[in-house]
Amino acid sequence: QVQLVESGGGLVQAGDSLRLSCAASGRTNRPYAMGWFRQDPGKEREFVAAMSSGGVTTSYADSVKGRFTIFRDNVKNTLYLQMNSLKPEDTAVYYCAADVNIVKVRAAPDYWGQGTQVTVSP
């Protein structure tokens, strides 16, 4: 069992930066791939970024490439999403997720956090 808790969301202006955190607890000794997703009411859940358990391999949605960076600290059991040059279309609830498989983490992760709201005003 792995528990994930996101933090760092808030209300910002377009062009601002924000860093989201996801603290993991439970069986964190296992090599989990982790990722970030986002969803707004009435929209389908959207993949944002993912990282392999060792932190070597990363992937990003085209909409955030060059603006967002995913990284992790395995000693602290924490995943981060650095969000720069934020746009109003980035507004959503952001969720972190974990799975033992980096492919599956993008499609149907086994573990989810509760989400943190990010709102970007024009």
Annotate the secondary structure layout.
Blueprint: E1 2-7, E2 10-13, E3 18-26, E4 33-39, E5 46-51, E6 58-60, E7 68-73, E8 78-83, E9 92-99, H1 104-107, E10 111-112, E11 116-121
Parallel strand pairs: 2-11
Antiparallel strand pairs: 1-3, 3-8, 4-5, 4-9, 5-6, 7-8, 9-10, 9-11
Q: How is this structure best described in words?
A:
The protein has 122 residues and is mostly beta strands. Helix content is 3%, strand content 52%. It contains one helix and eleven strands, in the order βββββββββαββ. The protein has one helix at residues 104-107, and strands at 2-7, 10-13, 18-26, 33-39, 46-51, 58-60, 68-73, 78-83, 92-99, 111-112, 116-121. Strands 2, 4, 5, 6, 9, 10 and 11 form a seven-stranded mixed sheet that branches. A hairpin with a 6-residue loop joins strand 4 and strand 5 (46-51). The chain starts with a strand and ends with a strand.
Low-confidence stretches: none
The profile of the biggest β sheet is:
7 strands, mixed
Query: How much helical structure, as a percent, in the residues?
Result: under 10%
Helix count equals 1
From the alpha carbons, calculate the radius of gyration and give it in angstroms: 13 Å
Based on secondary structure, the structural category is mainly beta
> What is the average of the pLDDT values?
95
Terminal CA distance reads: 40 Å
Principal-axes shape call: globular
Order of helices and strands: EEEEEEEEEHEE
Strand content: over 45%
> How many strands in all?
11
